[in-house]
Amino acid sequence: MRVLGIETSCDETGIAVYDEERGLLSHVLYSQIPLHADYGGVVPELASRDHIRKTLPLIQQALKEAGCEASDIDGVAYTAGPGLAGALLVGASIGRSLAFAWGKPALAVHHMEGHLLAPMLEENPPEFPFIALLVSGGHTQLVRVDGIGQYQLLGESVDDAAGEAFDKTAKLMGLEYPGGPLLAKLATQGQADKYAFPRPMTDRPGLNFSFSGLKTAAANVIAAEGKSPEVQADIAASFQQAVVDTLVLKCRRALKEQRLKRLVVAGGVSANTSLREQLEVLLKSLKGEVYYPRKEFCTDNGAMIAFAGFQRLRAGQQQDLTIGVTPRWPM
Ligand code: KG4
Ligand code: ZN
C-alpha cells in the first residue's frame, strides 16, 4: 500500500509519499514563514491562499521524487484538524477530490496523531505502550499510547501551549516570528539561573500545564530591564529553563504513574536542544528510553500525515465523500 499525505493545517505545506514496504519515498515542504513574518504571526487568509497556490505543484513534485505515478497511489491522507479552518479546507478539498478522481480511499488525519506517530518513521521506532509528550505551537499534552488510535489524555495545558509561550515571549523581546527557535538560540548565550521564573503547576499533583503566568513573569522582567543583548540572553535562558524544568517534571510524573519507561516527544518544541538534553538525563536515570522524530519532522510536515493515514487506511478506515474539517478536534 502506498499513501499520499497532505499537511496544510497552519503555515507549512507538506506533502509526502509513504510505502508500506519501502517506507518514506519522498517528502517535500514549503514554509510560508517569510510571508507572515512582517505581521508577527500567521495571517489565516494569506495562509489559505498560499496553500492553494502550492499544494498541487508540491504533490506533483513529491510523486516525481518518489518515482511514481498517480496510479501507483492507493490512498490519500490529509490533515482535517486541529488547525486554521481555511488552511485545513485547502488540503481536505484537494486530498479528498484527488482520491475521488483516482478511485481510491481517502482519510482525514488528526494533526496531533501525525506528530505523535512521527518518531515511528525513524530507525529505532518505539514499541507500544509509551508516554507521548506533544509540544507544539497549539498543544501541550501528555498522552498514554497503547496502540494506533488507543490514546488516553493524561494532562494538557489549561491556557497557552509551550510553543505559544516561547513565541509570545520571543515577540516581547523583539524577535521575529516564529520566535521559539530564535529564543532558544539566544538562550545558549545566557545564564539560566539569572532569573527565578515560576515552574507553573509543579507544586501540586496532576499532569496539567499552565504557561501563561510564566509568559507574564517574563514580560515583566523584559519591560523592566530587558534592553541590552546580555540581559535578553539571560532572560531567554532562564525562561527556557523554566519551561524545560516544568515539562521534564511532568514527564517524570507521568512515566512513574503509568509505570512506563518509554517516552516519545514530538511537535515543534521537541526540536529544542535543551529539552532533549534534559529528557535524555531523565530517561537515563529511569533506565528507559526517549524517542524523537528527526528534527525536520518535529515541526509540521507531510511525512507524519502520510504515515498516520497509512496506518488507518491499512486498518480499513476511510472517509465518505463529504469534505469536512474540524478546526478544534480533541484527540
Ligand atoms: O508542530 P509545529 O510546527 O506547529 C504546530 O502544530 O503548532 O510547532 C511550532 C512551534 C512554534 O511555537 C515554534 O516556536 C516551536 O514549535 N519551536 C520551538 C523550537 N522549534 C520550533 N520552540 C522552542 N525551541 C525550538 N528549537
Ligand atoms: Zn504541528
From TrEMBL:
GO biological process: tRNA threonylcarbamoyladenosine modification
Annotated cofactor note: Binds 1 Fe(2+) ion per subunit.
Residues involved in substrate binding: L134, V135, S136, G137, G138, D167, G180, N272
Reactions that this protein is recorded to catalyse: L-threonylcarbamoyladenylate + adenosine(37) in tRNA = N(6)-L-threonylcarbamoyladenosine(37) in tRNA + AMP + H(+)
Record keywords: Acyltransferase, Cytoplasm, Iron, Metal-binding, Transferase, tRNA processing
Known cofactor(s): Fe(2+)
One Gene Ontology molecular-function label: iron ion binding
Superkingdom, taxonomy of origin: Bacteria
Cross-referenced Pfam families: TsaD (PF00814)
Function comment: Required for the formation of a threonylcarbamoyl group on adenosine at position 37 (t(6)A37) in tRNAs that read codons beginning with adenine. Is involved in the transfer of the threonylcarbamoyl moiety of threonylcarbamoyl-AMP (TC-AMP) to the N6 group of A37, together with TsaE and TsaB. TsaD likely plays a direct catalytic role in this reaction.
Name by which UniProt lists this protein: tRNA N6-adenosine threonylcarbamoyltransferase
Organism name: Rheinheimera tangshanensis
Gene designation: tsaD
